[in-house]
Fold these 2 entries.
Entry 1:
Amino acid sequence: MLQEHAKIVQFISLANEVNGRKKLQKMVYIAKKMHFSFAEKYELHMYGPYSEELTLRVEELCEMGFLAERCTDKGSYVQYHYHVTNEGTSFLETADAPHDMLGACIELLNGKSARFLELVSTLLYFDHLEKDEQVEKVRIVKSKLNFSDEEMDNAFAFIDELEKVSVQ
Amino acid sequence: MAYKDQKLVEEKVFKDPVHRYIHVRDQVIWDVIGTREFQRLRRIKQLGTTYLVFHGAEHSRFHHSLGVYEIVRRIIDDSFSRRPEWNHEERLVTLCAALLHDLGHGPFSHAFEKVFHLDHEQFTQGILLGDTEVNAVLQKVSADFPQKVADVIGKTYPDKLVVSLISSQIDADRMDYLQRDAYFTGVSYGHFDMERILRVMRPAEEQAVIKYSGMHAVEDYIMSRYQMYWQVYFHPVSRSAEVILMKILHRAKDLYNNGYVFSQEPVHFRSFFDRTFKLEDYIALDESILLTYFQLWMKENDRILADLCSRFINRNLFQYAEFDPATEYRKIGELEQLFREAGIDPEYYLVTDSSSDLPYDFYRPGEENERLPIYLQMPNGELSELSRSSDIVDAISGKRRTDHKIYFPKDVLEEGKEGNPLFERILALLKK
């Protein structure tokens, strides 16, 4: 029980801190696509794959006091940062241990920008398509972001890198 | 005449309790409705287990799909038809997407998806693009037409206005299900002035917007939605039925995977238990099949499966208590231990369940939730986000309400407490 909540606390604990709601959404989605076990259901939204269930879970965890949310004013918008509280650390004692490779995967993800993860996650959302169709789809649904060819290449290279730390 | 432009010699109508009539003139729409995959929706209830609380809620996804189609047809053919922002070339794809948006729902959709880790949206895509009767009809329009319909439903279609008619915070899907579910459950919430909303709906570049004068009709719609969620959709007793339904499927799956020999072979489920299912296996399932198995499994030798099925079929549901996960997560561990000591498997008989709803939210660039807001078209032509003009909507914007419950078989605990003080302890802990 509450194992799915625990997995999110564990995820943020392994990352130490996650900067941005969008970034957290994309990190969990990409980890899920790398076959780590997360139950949150995703759909394609404004910034690529998005899970209402994850938003809810994170809000609940903040209300429960297991996660702390900190805001930074970025001028045109507010950025939210998440870290695990002492209560959250105690709560994790009731959880199963995470997969061995999850920490390495999270480290790779946390080192990238939200914009880049938005591109990577959207490409992965269309990973049932051929590579050129994937790119074409991303250019349609993300037309305003004008991703360059170089960014596309970097995203595919990053996906290859991630697969080395995925659940086989 | 091209198939996409063919009209029926005589308009067909479906009598409908919510919209009075559903009008069909397009041959393509008529042909899609006749396919086996669309007809299957007659055998899947719109509200799953809710009929165990509101006995009128026996309406199907077939009703709802026709209703969404009719609302979109009225928007396109009446409200948008003479407006330059609307591209008439998008008419047929929009109508087909409205009609087919729920095509991939399975029996007791939510529970079935959770247990077998499925996504009905993927099945919608699979039915639209696979070797199906629906695909054959859509292919007759053009080779790329099934993909276009799939893209609208999958929200990846380039014309965002088309997507917004079926999927946004004020879309035809919600407008139909709120009214339809209110009608069939018999509750007095869920009513709003849809005719007015359709009259003041305007096509814009990225989505449909509402003329300023229609703000109060939209307020009413948002409040209806809020009330329906808490009064109907999250009713604790229908959640209890859903909890039991999920546990039945879990138990059957676990038994199968552990080599249990069923008296009634789970032929229809086998491919889901071992994850070898094909699209055809999914299409073959409906709620009548699940209910038949539940009836038969009431006589299984496995006591847990037989008991859960009997509870579902005979509506002997679990009792519930309030539960605060923040302060009581350790209590769950304690209860699990006590249940085990009492010989009751907590995996099947002690269940936490949460419901949550966000009635309306607006978009803040860069960070916040990813919901496209509702825009009002102001007298000067500018667009203004709804909660800036409406105090009522502002009051509930971004306010999420969550409810946690713990479900358990109170009848078993009450019955056993005379002979076993452990049962008394469990009941006392649940009452705290």
Note: The first helix of chain B runs from residue 27 to 33.
Entry 2:
Amino acid sequence: MTMPLLQVKDLSIRFGGIIAAEDVNLSVNPGENLAIIGPNGAGKTTFLNICTGYLSPVSGTVHFMGRDITRLAPRNITRLGIARAFQIPQLFLEQTVNENMLLAITARHTSLSTIRPLGTSAFRDEAADILSLLKVADFAARPAQELPEGTRKLVDIAIALALQPRLLLMDEPTSGVASSEKFAVMDVLVAALATRGVSSVFVEHDMEMVTRYANRVAVWNGGRVQKSGPPQDILDDPEVRRTVIGH
Amino acid sequence: MTSDLLLIAALDGIAYAALVFLVAVGLTLIFGVLRVLNIAHGSFYALGAYVAASLGIGIAASKISPWLSYPALAVAAAIVGIVVGSAIERLLLQRIYDKEEVLQLLVTFAAFMILDNAQRLIWGVQPYFVATPLQLLGNVQIGGITYTVYQIIVLPAVALLVLAGMRLFLRRTVSGRVILAVAEDREAARAIGINVPRVYLWTFVIGSILASLGGSLASPTTSILPGMGTDMLVLSFAVAASAGLGRIEGAAITALLIGLGRSAAVYWAPELDVLVPYLIMTLVLLVKPQGLFGTLQARRI
Amino acid sequence: MGARNIVLLVTAAVLLAAVAWLLPWTRTFLVIAMSKGLAALGIVILLRAGQVSFGHAMFFAVSAYAAGFASRMLGGTDIAVMLAVGIAAAAVLSLVVGLFVVRYRQIFFGMLNLAFSMVLYSILEKFFEITGGSDGLRLSRPSMFGLVLQRNDFDLMLVFLSIALALGATLAVQVYFASSYGQALRAIKSNETRLEYIGVSARLVLLIGYVVSAVTGAIGGVLLAALQGLASPSFSYWIQSGEFVFIAILGGSAFPAGAFVGALVYEGVRIYAAAFANDIWELVLGLVIIGIILFAPRGLVGLAVETFASPRKREAVPDGSVPMTNAAPAKGSAEQ
């Protein structure tokens, strides 16, 4: 049996009286696209926050490629190969989309410099490739604060992709993206993840997205992983249908 | 002899802490509700002291009872807080609530420069000293030490009254609860029909009165000099930040901590007395960046 | 950084040098303006990260005193040594203070800097035997890169040196702003969370900016001390820090050269205002800061750029663009 890429053991965290996670055990295997579904406020984003070091759990551990990353800072976890796209896009608003991308690519490749200008031509090409993959290349020269909501989401994913992670965590990746666009974008994104050997975890409310792109689904409810398994089994489960999908 | 020194240092520290607390609690109240750190806050302290001194001189010059100098201290605080406080809030702060935090800081800093200059224009740079309120009440013996009643009884009593009064006002009265509601969630308060701009004005005036009261009460105990506002601003910030900005009861405790720390330094390491408050703040913030009683809030992402 | 921009800055520097050459009475004024401009340049660097320091004068003072001590210990010295010692002292102090203050932002950053500068001020005033107390530290006129000069020649050379250093610092800061650390510094202002999530330490980025900003201030402090033959506690007083912030905002905090435009205008007005407005100087400054923030937030250079930029350049935003705004568009309102 291969070692899981990400392994979470006995994870617990609570805020005041609310239990966001309690004794959660979950792992992500290489090559997997794991969807996490569940009602709002169940702690799905908290789970991503813990995996990336934004929050510390009360108890439990997170291992990435066999290494304990439980209390590392986000930047150290990022440098180990976990990138994240956010529910609320996190962009450098004053800078252009291109500068956003180049900062990410530069940070991945080399230590930063106080003298060399941001972005070599190789980095610029790489940024352009990723932006066109996500169909936002037209916005490259625009300041991020001018972008429409859906575009922001995609640029946020582009930045995460530019970090060339082993594991990409996404929080409702296409919420706010026009429905005419989102499947086209996700098709190329998921294909690109496969060719690059990147595994992914995505929090999702849209069951059609789950069916199309996940090869495993975990149901998060009341701070626990209620069930996990292949998409069809999970989505057909009567209890899941009743508690999560709502019909 | 050492135990006497210890006692004197403790009494000094308590008297001083009472004054610092009054200023710091105003700063922290304004911040808690308006989310603006008022750098001009130190000017209210200085103005309170100068106005109180002028009133004191006026009372001494006329033939009326010197006991009137006590109400004069309160009157000075009220005048400065209401007149200058409401002017600053209405003319200046109202225009910047939706601006970047760094711009808000710059604007209150500019207000500080203006008030500091105005104060020098009116009162000049020569020191004032009006000790009538200190002398009238005489002294008291505490453990063999003679200390002024004003500093060791009146000042701490006023500080405790303000602390208790603030608690009662904020928790038990409608106005107080309205202020708390705005501090908790500005938008929600607006949605349920609270007049937020008016709450801001009231809060700012109350906070300013507290700073001016600190100044007017301090005026009998010290020479009134240019620069006293800056020192007190930074000190009260040290107190408020060590407690956690917005924490009223916490500010009382850190004021005592910093007051005692400073007076200990005055007796045992006089060259360090200015440094001690900042050292305490630095240590607290290194260990708990949100202050001793503050809570850390993660940004939603 | 375009060639046009370099030509413009060099031309401005040469013009200033020519003024100093032809009009001896402008020399003192120009050295003061350049030294305060250098300190304000430090504020511009911090504003790039969305931070403001109300205690930046501490680096201005510490470099002046360090240069003074060096001069005293060596029994007179060279301007190059003074600059080296001053810069080194400010770099060390900014590293130590910086390690602490870069953990904080906004209010805390500004106020902690103010607190540190006040500590320095009281140390300079209190330790009389070492620092000369409130009278300050006298220093003899240094040699100018090995040349021992008379008063007039020294002043002229000092102006040239100040202008050259101001030009060099402006160009260096422009290079820094365009570099990856410079871009990361700007990113602190809009989204520190994302910065951490691309694997960059926001604190390290800000610390580098802080040290660079202290060094530009340090150059200014040494120049002013050399001009006046004196380093005094007022170099570190909060009003001095306020002046630097004022100059940066006046010139236009988005432009490194703005610091010097701001300083020239500020010192120029001050010379003429001193006669009739000396007593209300800070009051006027305060009102002008408020006026600029409310009505011309991009400062003098920003106004000039808006006025003189060619129409083509102003409309460089492609058609169909969303108008520039700080607020995020409402969710789902503008899907392509």
Note: Residues 180 and 288 of chain C are 35 Å apart (CA to CA).
